[in-house]
Write a structure and sequence with these properties.
- The complex is a heterodimer of chains A (355) and B (302).
- Chain A has helices at 10-30, 34-60, 68-85, 90-110, 118-138, 166-189, 191-201, 203-208, 213-240, 250-263, 268-291, 299-320, 324-354, and strands spanning 151-152, 156-158, 161-163, 242-243.
- Chain A is mostly helical and 355 residues long.
- Chain A has one domain: ABC transporter involved in vitamin B12 uptake, BtuC.
- In chain A, the strands form 2 sheets. In chain A, strands 1-4 form a two-stranded antiparallel ribbon. In chain A, strands 2-3 form a two-stranded antiparallel ribbon.
- Chain A is globular.
- Chain A starts with 9 loop residues before the first helix and ends with a helix.
- Chain B has 13 helices and no strands.
- Chain B has helices spanning 2-36, 43-60, 65-88, 96-118, 135-141, 147-169, 171-181, 183-188, 193-219, 224-230, 232-239, 244-264, 277-288.
- In chain B, helix 2 runs antiparallel to helix 3 and helix 3 packs across helix 9.
- The radius of gyration of chain B is 20 Å and the shape is globular.
- The chains are: A mainly alpha (355), B mainly alpha (302).
- At the A-B interface, helix 5, helix 8, helix 10 and helix 12 of A face helix 4, helix 11 and helix 13 of B.
């Protein structure tokens, strides 16, 4: 039997410890305002999770897909119906099953990837986006025949305990995201990830070396949709606290695509960086609009400027650093390291000279 | 029975004519793909940008119709120039997917700029052509067909013939085809790559403007145009990315199929299947004929 967990280096363990320390201890102790949890941290974790899904299919397997929000919607509404109709499943069980339901959609709409790639595949995945949203919208059963259009999400109850405060919900999101991120890293490092990357780099060559294209691509789509489905369920239950198909429109798919590309294709930490950037940048821009220009600039103009900047950054990154912000971060670390080590060498030399 | 047949004909013809509107958007796409093998995802944004600029010139500055059209067309040439200089030239040697992603970014930039410059509210565009049934056809053939649809069909036909002739019989067209086939080889025998790119992007911009006028007159000039323009993608898949007649046939097929399905099958599912039917149709085409009806066969080597 293959080892379930890949061997971790000391560096990984330190990274994990630092992240956990920051997110479990530092953030809850120092951040008290609800705004940060409800409007930034929770959506950040949810969208980062969805972006990991997008990364798996796009960054690792090299398949241009544009339907993340559709799978998120599938996950969210599956969750709603599971809690409503199969209450015995519990929150965690429902979350897993709704991820699996989204994965089934992922397999279905990922099948065209066996035949086509690039923009052709993008169009095929657009079908999933429009079809899933339409299906939820038109069949009353999915919405429990609610005619108002917006359904309130049920409260999160795990093992009989309610998780309704922003902090509690943050911990729910954090726990799910941590587990799934570790899993994703494992997969990316293991044979699964190697197969994905082989297919990405040259599918025909990969196939001739014995990598099954069918298996690898369908697997990538299924896992990607699973991540998106779980992220969608969390997004609806912890962030929106309501379910409406409109929240998962094509714009959200584009947003996740941007998070994925700007963050850095083919990296897991890029998903978090990208999601943070796309979420925080509008907040920053609005703050500048309100505080520097005192609301003299219209809000619609600010959001237009935001769009121009995102698009412009996309072009700039494609030209100068196609590997995105994660690569910039890597470069920065490299520079600091080389600076440090060169100063170490110098100090060593000076010590020697003194002797 | 006759009534039913007549109704079917009406739906079909309406769908076919509405399909030419998709064709117009798809045309700009094909133009760029044919000349530079670039998937220009921003074509929809270009449609939105150009027609919003056109409306802006007319309504905010009270510039007369023709002059505003020329100004908007010139603006699209400038957009083409900037795109060539700042997006395509640096990405000359990048992979297809990278360029595609850059054009997604370009689309965002254009959408944002258009909204920052001319606002987000829906504008009405009056071309002087009504979106109502032509009385003569309604009286004599008992078909209710909109004048706007007929105009769109005619405009599309004229543009296609023009572009077809351009590609087939002019030196520029020959250059365009050479660049599309192998940009490196074309530039090594002295075809000015820069000029060709500029020409193609400008032409695509003007095509976008025309398409935008047609769409704007029907649905109002608004952001939703970008989503509508996404439907040009299934059109291209059905017709083939590199074929101008393909864009037209694809548009007609999509237009007709989505209308007929919507009218006859839609009611069983609560309607609005137009939203996804073209994409699902495209998937079937992808499974059985990935290169489209008129496209060149895709050959990939290790």
């Amino acid at each position: 039997m293959k080892p379930v967990f890949m061997t971790y280096t000391k560096k990984d363990l330190i990274n994990l410890a630092v992240c956990m320390f920051l997110s479990v201890l530092i953030i809850p102790t120092f951040i008290k305002t609800e705004y940060w949890y409800t409007s930034i941290l929770i959506p950040w974790l949810c969208l980062a999770l969805a972006t990991i899904g997008q990364q798996i299919v796009m960054g690792y397997t090299g398949q241009l897909a544009l339907g993340a929000a559709g799978f998120m919607a599938a996950g969210a509404f599956a969750m709603f119906n599971l809690i409503l109709r199969v209450p015995d499943l519990g929150f965690v069980g429902s979350l897993i099953v709704s991820g699996l339901i989204a994965a089934a959609f992922g397999i279905l709409f990922g099948l065209p990837s066996l035949k086509v790639r690039g923009i052709y595949l993008m169009v095929a995945t657009l079908a999933s986006q429009f079809f899933i949203i339409w299906m939820i919208d038109k069949f009353g059963w999915f919405k429990n025949y609610d005619s108002s259009g917006i359904i309130t999400a049920q409260d999160i109850v795990i093992l009989g305990k309610p998780f309704t405060t922003p902090l509690a919900m943050y911990f729910v999101c954090l726990a799910v995201t941590t587990v799934l991120t570790l899993l994703a890293m494992n997969m990316a490092r293991g044979s699964t990830g190697r197969n994905w990357m082989a297919v990405r780099d040259m599918d025909i060559a990969a196939e001739s070396m014995g990598v099954s294209l069918l298996r690898t691509k369908v697997q990538a789509f299924a896992i990607s949709a699973f991540y998106c489905g779980v992220a969608g369920a969390l997004f609806a239950f912890c962030y929106l606290k309501s379910l409406e198909p409109v929240a998962f429109d094509i714009k959200l798919s584009f947003k996740i695509l941007f998070m994925c590309i700007l963050g850095g294709l083919g990296t897991i930490n890029g998903a978090f960086i990208g999601a943070a950037f796309i979420l925080l940048f509008p907040v920053l821009l609005n703050a500048i609009g309100n505080n520097v220009f005192h609301g003299a600039i219209d809000a619609t103009i600010i959001s237009s400027i935001e769009q121009v900047i995102f698009g412009g950054l996309m072009i700039i990154f494609m030209i100068y650093e196609p590997l995105g912000m994660a690569k910039l971060w890597e470069n920065l670390k490299q520079i600091i390291k080389s600076k440090l080590s060169s100063s170490n060498i110098r100090s060593l030399k000076s010590v020697k000279e003194k002797n | 029975m006759v009534d039913e047949l007549l109704f079917f004909m009406e739906v079909l013809v309406g769908g076919l004519l509405a399909g030419t509107m998709y064709s117009l958007v798809a045309l700009g796409f094909v133009l760029i793909f044919k000349a530079s093998a670039t998937f220009n995802f921003s074509q929809g944004a270009m449609v939105f940008f150009s027609v919003l600029a056109f409306c802006g010139f007319m309504q905010d500055f009270n510039i007369p119709f023709v002059l505003a059209f020329i100004l908007a067309a010139l603006l699209m040439v400038v957009v083409g120039l900037c795109t060539e200089r700042f997006v395509l030239r640096p990405l000359m040697n990048a992979s297809e997917d990278t360029v595609l992603m850059a054009t997604i970014g370009l689309g965002y930039v254009l959408e944002g700029l258009a909204q920052a410059a001319w606002g987000v509210e829906v504008r009405r565009l009056d071309l002087g052509i009504g979106d109502f049934p032509v009385p003569w056809i309604a009286d004599n053939l008992k078909l209710f067909i909109s004048a706007l649809d007929i105009t769109a069909g005619l405009v599309a036909a004229i543009m296609i013939i023009g572009l077809f002739l351009l590609f087939k019989y002019t030196k520029i067209g020959l250059g365009l085809r050479a660049v599309a086939d192998d940009a490196g080889a074309a530039s090594s025998i002295g075809i000015p790559l820069k000029h060709i790119m500029l020409l193609v992007w400008s032409a695509a911009g003007v095509v976008a403007l025309v398409a935008g006028c047609m769409w704007g007159a029907r649905a109002g000039v608004q952001f939703a145009l970008v989503d509508l323009a996404l439907k040009a993608l299934p059109v291209l898949i059905i017709g083939g990315f590199s074929s101008i007649p393909g864009a037209i046939i694809g548009g007609l097929i999509i237009g007709a199929v989505e209308k007929v399905l919507e009218v006859y099958i839609g009611p069983f599912f609560g309607g609005a299947i137009e939203g996804w039917a073209p994409y699902v149709l495209a998937i079937f085409f992808l499974l059985y004929r990935p290169e489209g009806l008129f496209g060149e066969k895709i050959i990939r080597r290790v």
